[in-house]
Amino acid sequence: MDNISIIIRNKxxxxxxxxxxxxxxxxxxxxxIIVVDNNSSDGSIQVVNLFTDRTDIRIINNESYTPGKxxxxxxxxxxxxxxxxxxxxxxxxxxxxxxxxxxxxxHSAIFGKQIPVYKGKKITPRYIWNHFGDKSVxxxxxxxxxxxxxxxxxxxxxxxxxxxxxxxxxxPGKEDRFWVQELIQNKGTYLYDPRLEINHFYTEGGxxxxxxx
Length: 213
Known about the structure:
Layout: E1 4-10, H1 17-27, E2 32-37, H2 44-49, E3 56-61, H3 67-76, E4 82-87, E5 90-94, H4 97-103, E6 109-118, E7 121-122, E8 137-138, E9 141-142, E10 147-148, E11 154-158, H5 159-164, H6 175-185, E12 190-201
Parallel strand pairs: 1-2, 1-4, 2-3, 6-12
Antiparallel strand pairs: 4-11, 5-12, 6-7, 6-11, 8-12, 9-10
């Protein structure tokens, strides 16, 4: 059994969350999966329950949702020393847990490469997606956003890091960017590692999906 807990935030993700969970099971040995649900009204929880015979899955409801609050709630319910945050509409394609653990000896956080997928088509990586290149970067700075860039849709931490340094619970989005700004101010480092890779699927109303093509 791998010493990792996986946090998946869910809000009506019935079309994708099964792919996310299945990919976790394929890349880890019986991981602990914490699904933090935001009052879903579709069949996503029924999909999650399909996997309870494969690994340890717990569902926690967060009625007063912000992204940071959901992550922090998940962290408090994790049992293992390592934590992965995974988008409910993502599918792991490349991952070596030994690489992750080795990098977390040197850095406070790691995030991996994301391939944007629109209805099965891998689209041109423009806008936010052009941050996910083929070279490793320490403390990535975004020229387009004019701030340090970190994306927690596919990210790794030690649990003790997140207990001591939780996500901001006020902001309605970009909680990952605010987190690394504070990390940098406290002389911490984080790593972008393209050897870790997911498919990130298009969802209706997704803020990062402008300019599909």
